[in-house]
Amino acid sequence: MQYITKTGQAIEQVFDDLAQLRIRVFRDFPYLYEGSIAYEKEYLKTYTQAERSFLFAVYDQDRMIGATTCIPLENEMPEVREPFEQAGMDVSRIFYFGESILLPEYRGHGLGHRFFDEREAHAQSYGTFEMACFCSVVRPEDYPARPADYRPHDVFWKKRGYHQEPALQSKMEWPDLGETESTAKSMIYWIKPIPPTSKLVSH
What we know:
By secondary structure, the chain is of the alpha+beta class. It has a single domain (2-193), classed as Aminopeptidase (3-Layer(aba) Sandwich). It has helices spanning 15-25, 37-48, 78-86, 111-124, 154-159; strands at 2-7, 54-60, 63-72, 94-102, 131-137, 163-174, 183-193. α1 (15-25) crosses α2.
């Protein structure tokens, strides 16, 4: 396995790999995402335009098999920032964790924890961020496409110290599998305090 990290504009160097991985993983429940490379590259521009954005990726030879990203919340899209702004929270003190994606055949070997470790360390290294957050899509329990053996990641996230905050919710749009038009999906946020580290890393 090969591990790489990139920040800011340098993330663009692996756009194609990251876009393909996102499309593959997010096709599965609960996202059921009908993605396209063009849509992905437009979305990922947000990360190249933020100096403190961060990517950690895993390769098996020349194939990206897992990746995770994070970005200061103040640099995220308005629909991501809005719930926090409406709640009167200081978005300049919050780091937003984007995708944490891994091909199914590579799961169960600790990479999920590594992804959180890397992002939390990156956010802490600046010494000014006080909270980490991410969001997950809300699908009804009786959703027709829900696999019978599906198990949400809630237990894992709680073990990492995150808790769901019902007061923080938003809507995001993407086309479901087999559809061409984007539709709004309900998203709920998970948050965790991340006290700044006393030993700052130079950037």
